[in-house]
Amino acid sequence: MNIQVTINGASRTWSIEPHELLLDTLRRYGYLSVKKGCDSGSCGVCTVLINDKPVNSCSIFAAKVDGSNIVTVEGVQAEAEKIGAYMVDEGVDQCGFCSPGFVLTVLGLQKELKNPTEDDILHYLSGNLCRCTGYVGQARAIHKYLKESK
Amino acid sequence: MILINEYRTPSNLQEAFELLQSSENSAVVGGGAFLRFSSKKIDVAVDLSKAGLSFINETEESVEIGAMTTYREMETSETLKTLFEGVLVKTIRNIVGIQMRNLFTIGGTVYARYGFSNLITTLLVLDAEIELYKAGRVTIKEYLDNRSIKNDILVKVIIPKNGQKVSFNMMQKTATDFPILTTAVSNNNGKIVIAVGARPAVAQIALNASQFASSNQLTEDVAKQVGELVANELSFSADLRSSAEYRKMICSVLVKRGLLEVL
Amino acid sequence: MKKDLKQVNSSIPKIDGMGLVKGKPAYTQDLIPSNILIVKTLKSPHAFAKVLNVNYEEALKVEGIEAIFSWKDVPQTIITRAGQGFPEPSPYDRYILNEYVRHVGDEVAIVAGETEEAVEEALKLIKVDYEVLEAVLDLETAVGHSSIIHPEKEAFSMFPIGFDANKNIAAAYEMHVGDVDDVIAKSEVKVEGTYFTQAQAQVPLEPHNCFTYVDFHGRLNVITSTQTPVHIRRIMGRALSMPLKKIRVFKPRVGGGFGGKQMLHGELFCAMVTLKTGKAAKMIYTRKEVFESTCCRHAMRFNLRVASDKEGYIKAIDMDVLSDTGAYGEHALTVLMVAGSKTLPLYNKVEAVRFNGVVCYTNHTPAGAYRGYGALQANFALESLLDELAEKLGISTVELHKKNMISEGESSPIFKIMGEGSEGVDMNVESCKLDYCLDRSIELIGWENKYPRKEIAPNKVRGVGLAIAMQGSGIAHIDMGSAILKLNDDGFFNLLMGATDIGTGSDTILAQVAAEAIGISASDIVVYSSDTDLTPFDTGAYASSTTYVTGNAVRKAGLNMRKLLIETVAKKFKVTPEEVTFENGVFTTEKESITLKEFSTRLYYNEGLDQKQLVASDSYVGEQSPPPFMVGVAEVEVDTETGFFTILDYAAVVDCGTTLNPNLAKIQVEGGLMQGIGMAVYEDVVYTSSGRMLTNNLMTYKIPTREDVKKLTVEFADSYDPSGPYGAKSVGEIGIDTPPAAIANAIYNAVGVRIKTLPITPEKVLMALKLKEK
Questions:
Q1: What is the pLDDT of residues C183-222, one digit of tens each?
Q2: B112 min Cα distance to partner chain A (Å)
Q3: Which is it for the CA torsion C447, C449, C450, C453, positive or negative?
Q4: Domain boundary at C576, C600, C621, which?
Q5: Residue of A nearest to C713 (CA)
């Protein structure tokens, strides 16, 4: 079947299997920033923005996003670089496998929450697991980023 | 892996229902996040996202939540943030991550009668009703008891606004894990209803204990006593997350705390 | 020493960081060409069975299926997949596929096809006749069990490791100094206890995955997410009976390893398909496969005795270990030995010490390498029991540790006796700031006001607890690292290394080391790692070896390059090398000067017969393995009605010598702590009574989230190890060691119950509290 999407600002028609998960479709069409991690919606490395909202692309049928606006890190390179600068400054860009999904959730947070507390930030990002950093360095980076990008 | 022959997104309920009946191997797609684990061959998948079921409507008597309303939409709803001091928001806010709460729907969790459903626990003590396309309106309690309702479409959940005080408590291993136990308590002018979920079976009201609580002045001692009554009245079993014994032990504590929150 | 450093001891950004944050294709999966065969394996549903027959006739008929292999179709050469140096200290007890399956998830058949759907369909159609055998699922009854997990006569060990397949023993080891029984009998104060540590899964967020193809030279190319490219090449060569020159292993960016990618996993299955069909093939593990069919940490039981005099001077330690290696003996002996060799030297003033251990086979998912590697397990037992000893003595744990722990300049007989798989190497600890780490960490947590407990509310009690730890820096006399530096025109260098950055930042710190040695900026180093065709030998990223072992090799190569540059410039200007200085990218003699940029370009284009390529290299084998040390202190808050507890803060002060990149070192420790906390309280590999893994996904196997522990406080001691590159010791593993004991001790101090079986769950705490009330 075919679906029509806006991906990173461009209109595209994709040919998909009816049971195909969005993650697989995206990778098949070359959006390789979207990673496959846990197959169960638990880790967040496959996060994309669908109509501005962070969603795990491993847990949604591609057929469901027909007509939606999808954003991957390929489409927000400048924003990723800005957030990335704070991350590399703290050394929390470790294996990097969770980073693109993490960046997108941060962008979702920025769009959704106006004056988040430290707990709000942790709670919003809690679906993004990281096995390398121990999280607190990521928190340092993101607090700084949010504070300085107001 | 799941195999789907045809994926349809009908634009109204009637069409959706007809599609659902059109094959023995049909399935409703809510958020789809759990359906994807299935290893079935599905003939027709009926996605309800365009059937007009995403809404939260408040009237004088009730709040109606459309079946396709996501957890995140509920969490951010001004109506639900204030309804019963935001107990529904508290109920769902620790479920997995935001990426999944943007997918999970109220209809999906209720219709599937998931044992781990936080929401069912709270909806039970709120005396909520559901509207099914074919079977019509039934209370959540009836729906949980009546397993013959199937192959239907859940349209909405109706929560009566009756001036209750409601509390929800749960215990989890990690902040985003499935619950070890969920408890909800409502106090409607002295009428107490207590439900416990993730036992790990689906949530259930402790009728006798609720009645006892309703007919006694609630003090800390009574709350403690009620907690123990609930633990003795309901059955618990073991799974990966907990032994039956531990569930029973924390049940009395969480119920006691929940009761003290609705004084 | 440190003050002169320009490139190292500086927090430059991780060189690959920004590209990865921006989602650039970098990992194995991102490099897979399209139109490649999909490889999956059929797994055993039984914990132990003999495969009588595999019928795949129907499965082969599925459209798009290219090949199916059972054990009869693949070479039956016995190997170990451990991914260690050669000869391996792990038993050879494994085949690509075998007629026995020894755990649920063990591979039965390999299927390759054009689409995921076809392969899945074919997997369902394969009919296997099993003779189900009695499974061995209990660590404590495995030895001498009537069911023998490795009945095959081919299994053997390369040298004596205590391997005794008939008794289900993969490895065994014993050593003692002095007469432990006698010293304990004569001692005034004695404590003993039994401790259990669970299997923990490594959970790198990138699952294991690889792809293979045969290139136009007819060589097998293996692109894989691994920690050990040269070991992969060697083991594949043996398994497939191929000369190593026919195999190339390339490691792209790796999305985390933690030991889980030290062994071979999908590489041989993919290679079988590629070699037999001539076609490229890929294998991407599902998370379920990562859990069930790769490896995890060795679960262990410790029987431990410690004795001291009345003043609290420890006289004897007696450690007895039983370890569960699961279905295969990968890392069985070495993890066992590290349990002793990386804990016992901490208390080096004892009169007698004994270590005795047996590693048994069971029908669990095999255990393998995992950060901490035995030290973590033993640390929990030893540091828990020492807390009990302090209590019995009526002194604080701080005092007990200060009286007994190893100090700078001291040695321990254990260093010489116990290595990893063989004898160790004698050494004096030339850098050890444990005393500072202890003082500073308790200061950071506010020990004085918090020890042992504080009641916050009627049902809320807080407590603090501590543990100390050591690890190593590579395996002395065995692990080798090497580096090649190549000067290019325009004055930049390629640093070629077999070292495998698995997300730790080793490429970055090694670039810093090279730059420091040459006297240039790290930004002028382009790092390439690792590709067995191009990069020099390196045993790989394990055993906390990269910083120290490869770091020393890179430093030597850098110094060689500097010397070579100066000599070449001297020749050009017809002066002696002593007359040339090189600073800030400029060579200067008394009369002349030239920039490195200009010099290098001229050297390759404009020097006529003097034109030549400058390449420098060197390698390094550790003469010793200087231990990094640390102290970890936990503060917990316990709900006494539910047993639920929160880790409020975890303070850690680490001595890893010079921090080559302080930011990256800090994140290594923070990340290690969080995994240690996961081990301590959340993570557990659980099986049904028939041996099926219940925790085979991230919905049931819970690693910590960012909301669970919100505060970690990490600092470093000012330390310098003279044998390390610019004073550095390794830091990759040490962070994981202390949380289990420190948290157990903190909970004891808070509510008076000692949990001796990991993980420490609210349920165990509450049950213990109820038992105590009775």
A1: 999 999 999 999 999 999 999 999 999 999 999 999 999 9
A2: 17
A3: positive
A4: C621
A5: A136
Q: Which domain holds residue C568?
A: 2-25+480-621
Contacts of A64 in chain B (CB under 8 A): 9, 29, 32, 47, 49
b/e string for A62-95 if b means 16 or more Cβ within 10 A? bbbbbebebbbbbbbeebbeebbbbbbbbbbbbb
Whole-model pTM over 0.95: yes
All chains having 3 or more CB pairs closer than 8 angstroms to chain C: A, B
The nearest CA of chain C is from the CA of A110 a distance in Å of 17
pLDDT score, position A150: 79
Q: How many CB pairs under 8 A join B and C?
A: 43
Helices (H), C7-160: 17-21, 57-60, 116-125
Report whether C327 contacts C152 (CB < 8 A).
no
Nearest Cβ partner for A84 among C22, C673, C703: C22
Closest CA to B179 of B92, B53, B71, B86: B92
* Per-residue pLDDT reduced to its tens digit, C353-363: 999 999 999 99
Selected residue with higher pLDDT from C378 and C420: C378
Q: What is the CATH number of the domain that holds C119?
A: 3.90.1170.50
Last residue of a domain, one of C621, C650, C685: C621
Which contiguous run of DSSP H or E holds residue B191?
strand B191-197
- Residue ranges of alpha helices (H) inside A65-98 are 77-90
Per the CB < 8 Å rule, is B103 touching A55?
yes
pLDDT of res. C2: 67
Q: What is the pLDDT of residue C774?
A: 86
List the domains of chain A with CATH numbers: 2-72 (3.10.20.30), 75-148 (1.10.150.120)
Nearest residue on chain C to B241, alpha-carbon basis: C700
User: Neighbouring chains of B at 3+ CB pairs within 8 Å?
Assistant: A, C
C1 band by pLDDT with thresholds 50, 70 and 90: low
Count CA atoms closer than 13 A to C603's CA, side-chain side: 27
CA distance C51 to C54: 7
- Residue B37 tokens, joined: 């684990």
The tens digit of pLDDT for each residue in B75-86 reads 999 999 999 999
- Taking only the tens place, the pLDDT of each residue in B153-202 is 999 999 999 889 999 999 999 999 999 999 999 999 999 999 999 999 99
B208 in contact with A, Cβ within 8 Å: no
C651 within domain boundaries: yes
Query: Is B175 part of the contact surface with chain C (CB cutoff 8 Å)?
Result: yes
pLDDT in tens, C301-350: 999 999 999 999 999 999 999 999 999 999 999 999 999 999 999 999 99
Q: Which residues of A touch C705 (CB under 8 A)?
A: 126, 129, 135
Q: Three-state SS string across C427-470, please?
A: CECCCCCHHHHHHHHHHHHCHHHHCCEEEEECCEEEEEEEEEEE
Please report the ipTM that was assigned to this predicted complex: 0.98
* B189 contact C CB<8A: no
Chain C residues within 8 A of B178 when measuring between CB atoms:
699
Q: How far is C40 from chain B (nearest CA, A)?
A: 13
The structure tokens listed for C116 are: 């995921």
75-94 in A: which are within 8 Å (CB) of B?
none
**Partner A, chain C 708-747, Cβ-Cβ below 8 Å:** 709-712
Residues C254, C209: Cα–Cα separation, whole Å? 10
